[in-house]
Design a protein that fits this description.
Elements (H helix, E strand, L loop, with lengths): L7 E4 L26 E4 L3 E3 L4 E9 L6 E10 L3 E9 L9 E2 L12 E6 L3 E5 L10 E5 L4 E9 L6 E3 L1 E7 L7 E2 L1 E7 L3 E2 L8 E10 L9 E8 L4 E8 L2 E6 L8 E2 L12 E10 L5 E2 L10 E8 L7 E4 L2 E2 L2
């Protein structure tokens, strides 16, 4: 049985918790370090040599009032390959649970992709100006349910204690932030037959997703990226014939970002995405949540204005909401 250490979900509502980037000025004119609105630290998982596991840690945020998140930061210890933060309308498992069951969105509709990190220390800052002088923030409801998906792997000859840490920074009370949300495009049709290293089986999936008005206005995108597992050899996002994002790295796909005043508006009305794969293994690979044996194809874009932070979800090429 794996040993799990305690888990920590920490509210940090000091006066500077909801300050602007860099914190408030101190009396002597120097910067004051800004405290996060809250932090989530997952339990330690003890990874034995050659372990390759996907866990989800389920949480409720400790904030008691609405927040507008302006920045995420994260830290992953040795053994953690990537982390993805999802928000959910209800608790999928009791807060504090750590489980490998149905861990992710490859087979479930509903969790909202909110933040991801593929490197030990990472961050994502939302735009400080929406082009009209207002900051952009991700709405965070009180006691928000969610989970962190973690891919954990030990390629050493000794046990590793692995965990991830997430920090959320928010605007001050009273700041009128333009709400942002993700657009998630997921294809569940990955089906790669067995291959060989010298002759891998190739496959491609993708879709065309309608760009819909939100809050009565066409969305303005500030960030797009993609996510696959290790059989992924290329991913891209297009606006019609215009290439917006193109990556050949599954481990560190990168992103395309835009800023004020224009950001990016899809002139074709379609969010087109594609994932390409090569399977060099002697077994078939299907759509699923387990990074060591499955595959997935997801494209993510962040935009504003958004009605309530829920965003839009496109399955294959069908807009579900």
């Amino acid at each position: 049985m794996r040993r799990l250490a305690f888990v920590l979900v920490t509210p940090m509502f000091a006066c500077a918790a909801n300050g602007s980037p860099g914190g408030d000025p101190s009396p002597d004119g120097g910067p004051v370090a800004e405290a996060p609105a809250f932090q989530i630290t997952t339990p330690d998982v003890i990874l034995q040599p050659d372990d390759d596991l996907t866990y989800c840690y389920y949480f409720r945020t400790p904030n008691t009032a609405d927040l507008a998140i302006k920045q995420w930061t994260s830290h992953m210890t040795a053994g953690a390959e990537f982390m993805i933060v999802y928000l959910t309308s209800t608790s999928m498992q009791p807060p504090g649970s750590l489980s490998t069951d149905n861990c992710g969105i490859a087979t479930v509709v509903g969790p909202v992709w909110t933040y991801a990190a593929m490197s030990p220390d990472a961050q994502m800052a939302l735009p400080a100006d929406d082009g009209e002088g207002n900051p952009v923030g991700l709405p965070m409801k009180p006691n928000q349910a969610g989970f962190i998906q973690m891919h954990l792997m030990n390629s050493t000859s000794a046990p590793i204690h692995a965990h991830v840490e997430l920090s959320a920074f928010a605007y001050r009370d009273g700041v009128q932030a333009t709400p942002a949300a993700p657009m998630i495009a997921l294809n569940r049709q990955v089906n790669l037959g067995s291959g060989r290293p010298e002759q891998p089986t190739e496959g491609t999936v993708g879709g065309n997703c309608e760009i819909r008005p939100d809050n009565g206005r066409l969305p303005r995108f500030f960030h797009v990226t993609t996510h696959t597992y290790k059989q992924g050899v290329r991913t891209f996002v297009k606006d019609g014939a215009a290439m917006l994002f193109d990556s050949v790295s599954w481990a560190n796909p990168g992103n395309t970002s835009w800023s004020a005043p224009g950001f990016y508006m899809f002139t074709s009305g379609m969010f087109t995405y594609q994932c390409e794969y090569k399977n060099p293994t002697n077994h078939s690979i299907m759509n699923g949540n387990l990074a060591d044996r499955d595959e997935m194809c997801v494209a993510i874009g962040f935009y504003f204005p958004a009605a309530d932070g829920t965003g839009h979800f496109c399955l294959n090429s069908a807009m579900l909401y």
